[in-house]
Each structure stands twice: as structure tokens, then as C-alpha cells.
Amino acid sequence: MEDWAEIRRLHRAEGVPIKEIVRRLGVARNTVRAALRSDEPPKYQRASRGSVADAYEPQVRALLVQWPRMPGPVIAQRIGWPYSEGPLKKLLARILPVLVVTLAFSRFLSATMIPSRQAGDILSGMWLLIAALGRVPKTLVWDRESAIGGTGRVSVPAAAFAGTLATRIRLAPPRDPEFKGMVERNNGFFETSFLPGRSFASPVDFNNQLGDWLATRANTRTVRAIQGRPVDLLETDRQAMTPLPPVAPAVGLTQRIRLARDYYVRVDTCDYSVDPRVIGRFVEVTASPTRVLVLCEGAPVAEHERSWAKHAVITDPAHVATAHQMRLALAEQRRAQQQAQQTGARRHSDGHSVALRALPDYDALFGVDFTPTGTADPTAAPATEASTP
Fold first, then answer.
1. What b/e string do you get for 229-252 counting C-beta neighbours within 10 Å, with b at 16 or more?
2. Helices 57-66 and 72-79, interaxial angle, to 10°?
3. What DSSP character marks residue 352?
4. What is the C-alpha to C-alpha distance for residues 365 and 346, in angstroms, rounded to an integer?
5. So what's the pLDDT on residue 110?
6. What average pLDDT does range 77-97 have in this prediction?
7. Phi, psi of 170 (to 5 degrees)
8. Angle 14-15-17 from CA coordinates, rounded to 5°
9. Is 228 helix (H, G, I), strand (E, B) or coil?
10. Alpha-carbon distance values, 300 to 6, 76, 250, 292, 343 (Å)
11. 91 pLDDT higher than 60
12. Spatial CA neighbour of 296 closest among 276, 286, 282
């Protein structure tokens, strides 16, 4: 990190050439060039080795479809889980991430299922729920969620989100379940009052049923601690909040990549097709919990419904047809080039044939003769001149 910052300072602020930077810092020339090309600080990324739970994921999902409330120990028994409970708990948390927001005064509940526990998806769910409230809480209390503050400090995406909303994020102390006991009690309330006896056809169906249950049951019940209903005290909570920002915060999963020849981009673990006419150009990929949008120089080149499945391939038939036409056109172009080489003719951009002329034709046109006759043989002996006195 220090080398990256010093290289950019020397070159951009002081105008030091690359060769001199190499000598001063004792780094490779390619390292200097890479630092000057990069607009973001370097970061180490270790390739994921996967988890022992990956092989059991299809069985776990099949059980949760029939019994969404099945406890983890029972799932472990049903699938014959041979390892410790840690990897299985992480798998269950990844399969069913539900974001819950509880207003501390009115106890008003909001919740939505999100595709993953990545920062972009979590913040998308946060913005969805806050925008539905119409006001911004002055403090957002979070536990040590890895994407929000797993290291004990608020992550960069979460800090940017809070700055746009003019609020602050307060992280719970480590190993202190009572700090967020209100949310934990509501999670238990969901498990005992919402999930039993229900089946869900899709994530959209889950969120629709959850929204109906929150409006008709959870927020209309009388909470003993406040001696009232959350829906009746919501307006008092809202008056203590701040207005929504004029500009929506940056949320969702984003990336900028050069489109490869297979014309697919990867979001989470799924691949989405892109218009193959922009192969080799940079595209910006933005994924919300429901949509995946791909732009090239500001123009949309792909739009798909977000898939919550794992390792799926989502293809637009129009992209396949375009790729097929491009392959046919390329094959025709190569065939024409081969014929031109064989017949001594070539094609103009408008399609008509252009004859290939020999170079001596141009010499004759300009009156140039590069092979004059009568030139002395350079290997012959030099002539002597005699004279009579």
C-alpha cells in the first residue's frame, strides 16, 4: 500500500519518470506501471477453496423447501452431517438471509429476504426498508456482520451508505447478545409466528407473504413493553427521524470488467449473457436483489431478472441470435479473404472487388525506372585512360 501511494505521488505530483522511481524504491518496472494504471489501492484476494458444506447444499435446500423452520441439528441428522456445526450454520445463514429492521421506540417491524450476505445486497435491503418508512433513523445499530463491521470498524460500503443518509452506524460490542436483544426477540417471533405451516414458491412469494403478515399481524399486535400497537406509535418514531436524502445511496453489487469472448458476466455465482457486439469493451454491471443491468458507455446492453439460485446460467435468446449472426458474418469475411488471396483481388468496404496491381505498374505510372540499362558491372576492373603526349 505504501509503495503504491509513493509511486503515484512521485510520478503525478513531482513528475519523476518511471526509471527513476524504479531506482529510488527498488521495485520492478512492471510494478510501477501497474501502480500508475490502477485507480484503486491494491488488495490481496485469496482464491476461495470452497466449504465442506457445498456438497450438502442441494439436500439442505430440499429439506428447507418442505420444512422452512427445521432446526439446524435436525437438518444435520437428516443429511448425515459428519463435520462440526460451524460450516453447516454458515450454509443455513447463506441460504436464508432475512434482513430485519426494528424501530426502538415503536417496535415497528420491517423485513425482507435478500439474495446474499454481501455488502451490496445487505445495503440494498436496508435502503428498501428505510425508503418504505419515508424517513431515516438517526442511528443504525448493527451486530458484527462481516460485510458491515466484522473487523470492529464500519466497512467502506456501509460508511458510504451512512454518509449519504446522514446517519451513523453503531456496532454492537463483541459477544454481547443483550445489546441487540430487541432484534433477537423479533427473530424468534418470526420463527414461531410466521414460518410454521407456510410454504413458499419463490423469494418473491416469501416477501409477499412476509409483508402481509407484518401489516396484518406483527405491527398491529399490542406489545406489552410499550402498552400499545407499533402501527399506532410509528408516526411518533418518524417525527424524530431525518428526511430521506435527495439522492439515493449507491447500493447493490457493482463491477466494471472487459467483456470476454463468451459474452457472459458473473454476479455472485450466476452467469448472465450480454450483447456480444460489445465484446472486448468495458461494461458496468449493477445488480439489485431483483434485477441485473449491464451498461456500456451509458447504454444498456443487457438486463435480466436476478437469479437467487447458485451457479445458474441466464441467457437472453436475442444475444444468442446476435452471436450466431456475428459468427456467420466472420466466417463469410474469412472466406472472402481466402478467395481474394487465391484470385488476386480484394474487396472494398462497400463490397465491390478491387484488382491487385503489380508494383511495376506504379513505376511506369510515375515514370520511374529503378533498373536502368547500361550500368557498369561493379565487379569489373576499373578502366584506364591513355593519352598521347
1. bbbebbeebbeebeebeeeebebb
2. 120
3. -
4. 21
5. 93
6. 78
7. -110, 120
8. 130
9. strand
10. 38, 45, 18, 11, 43
11. yes
12. 282
Residue-wise pLDDT for 109-165, tens only, equals 999 999 888 899 999 999 999 999 999 999 999 888 888 988 888 999 999 999 999
Q: Collect all residues with Cβ–Cβ distance below 8 Å to 243 and sequence separation of at least 6.
A: 135, 136
pLDDT of 272-320, one tens digit each? 999 999 999 999 999 999 999 999 999 999 999 998 877 889 999 999 9
The three three-digit cell numbers of residue 310, written as one number: 447458485
Contact by Cβ (8 Å): 103, 137: yes
pLDDT computed for residue 260 by the predictor:
92
Residue 334 CA to residue 343 CA, distance in Å, equals 14
Q: 329: helix, coil or strand?
A: helix
Instruction: Report CA 194 to chain centroid distance, whole Å.
Output: 33
Angle at 82 between CA 94 and CA 146, to 5 degrees: 25
Mean pLDDT of 197-210: 83
Exposure letters 118-134 (e unless 16+ CB within 10 A, then b)? bbbbbbbbbbbbbeebe
Structure-block grid coordinates of residue 120: 451490496
Q: Is 354 exposed, middle or buried (0-12, 13-18, 19+ CB in 10 A)?
A: exposed
pLDDT level of residue 384 (50, 70, 90 thresholds): very low
187, 179, 176, 11: which is closest to 93 by C-alpha?
187
Residue with cell 454518509: 163
Report the C-alpha gap between 240 and 242 in whole angstroms. Answer: 7
Q: Where are the beta strands (DSSP E) in the chain?
A: 98-102, 109-113, 135-136, 139-142, 168-171, 242-243, 253-258, 264-267, 270-273, 282-287, 291-296, 299-305, 313-314, 345-347, 353-355
Region of residue 279 (phi > 0: left; psi between -120 and 50: alpha; otherwise: beta): beta
Q: Name the residue type at position 243.
A: P
Residue 360 clears pLDDT 90, i.e. is over it? no
Q: What pTM did the predictor assign?
A: 0.66
Question: Which comes out higher in pLDDT, residue 2 or 22?
Answer: 22
Position 84 pLDDT exceeds 60: yes
pLDDT beyond 70 at 94: no
